[in-house]
Specification:
about 35% helix, 5 helices, four-stranded parallel β-sheet, globular, alpha/beta, two-stranded antiparallel sheet
């Protein structure tokens, strides 16, 4: 059995980002994973009930706030819980998530001022997945994620 990988839907070309578009990446690795049936897509923000398009949101303290001042923390938490459930259901140990997202950012997120400035930190879903032991990668780290999946495959 091959290891499955959780992948942000926007990276696969789904128009689920806040602006109504995608962040599709063209990658031989990603195409191979799709062909092998490894990919489990997820958009935690849509899973949490947020529409597309939607106002941009950033992490401010313990909350996720839109640029209009609306607290959308509950939707982000619901989406994170659904991503964790998917990971558990499919035995996911590796995820490739959209960088800088208040849901999926794994090493940096926007600073909460809507100024475009990044700070060290992780999104709501990324933290939840890391909390159950999922290794996190972003779209610039596909080779590293592929190596991690190959190691898992060799152990099973």
């Amino acid at each position: 059995m091959i290891a499955r990988v959780l992948v942000s839907s926007c990276l696969l070309g789904a128009d689920v980002r806040y602006h109504g578009g995608s962040a599709r990446i063209d990658s031989e690795i990603l195409r191979r994973w799709l062909d092998e049936g490894r990919v489990v897509p997820v958009c935690p923000e849509v899973e949490g009930g947020l529409g597309t398009p939607r106002p941009p949101a950033e992490i401010v303290g313990l909350h996720v706030i839109t640029n209009e001042g609306r607290d959308v923390t509950a939707a982000f938490q619901t989406g994170a819980a659904r991503a964790v459930a998917l990971a558990s259901e499919h035995g996911i140990r590796v995820a490739v998530l959209k960088s800088h997202s208040p849901s999926c950012g794994s090493s940096e997120v926007f600073d909460g001022t809507f100024s475009g400035r990044l700070v060290p930190g992780a999104g709501i879903t990324a933290r939840a997945l890391a909390g159950i032991g999922v290794r996190l990668f972003d779209e610039t780290q596909l080779a590293e994620a592929d190596a991690a999946l190959n190691r898992i495959d060799q152990l099973t």
